[in-house]
Amino acid sequence: MSPDLNGIASSLDRLVALQQKGLWDYIATIAVVLTLIVLVWYTVETYKLRKAAQAQMTETANLLTEAQRQNQTSLRLLEQAQRQNDVTAKLVSEAQRQNESTADCTARMKPQSCQYWRSE
After folding, report:
1. pTM of this prediction?
2. How many CB atoms lie within 10 A of CB 60?
């Protein structure tokens, strides 16, 4: 062969040798593919977690709204109970005053002058 063809042939031999993959080349390729799979899995799981967190936040907001509504209802009931207690206290006070007035009239034995004395 001519020297030019020998140079070309030896260059081609070197290119072919470089093109042949060794064991480490296959291991590196497998590592890259596994990394890609792990990244895809991580992305999918993160998406699922984000969706679950959003659903949880929505449910928490609904529960907080319901709790606030119940608190407002309890407050209204408490206010009504307080008003009823005030009315009851006034009625008890009025009854005590009437009893004292009746007792005073009875003690003085002047029924006609008693404001709350009943005629029989």
Report:
1. 0.48
2. 10
